[in-house]
Fold GrpB family protein.
Amino acid sequence: MEIQHIGSTAVPGLPAKPIIDILAGVRSMAEAESLAERICRSGYTTSAEFNASLHDRRWFMRWADGRRTHHLHVVVHDSQAWRERVDFRDALRSRPELASRYAALKSQLALRHATDREAYTEAKSEFVRSVLAGAC
């Protein structure tokens, strides 16, 4: 239904890993499931184990030269998962001081969790929640 560029690469000037995050909106999670095979045939891969742990989205990744280049998040359009990702991106785009604080946090966490992507992602979550709650 709609595609949005999200994540740090979607915020001008924000330091980011060289991975493009794409948000694709569908009508239902059943539709997301039905698209999985077609998405994988188009060059993406996925983790069935990781997707089984997700209730609000399906996740795919694209690779080039042995490195991830894209993450594709397929979610129900205008669901909470959709709105949170778009709202967070928009908050960072519209408030340079907030984007700067987020960049500093990411830099600290990247050093602290250099070998643990999941811990890095989890450590950013409190900041994301506070922005979405309007506390920042």
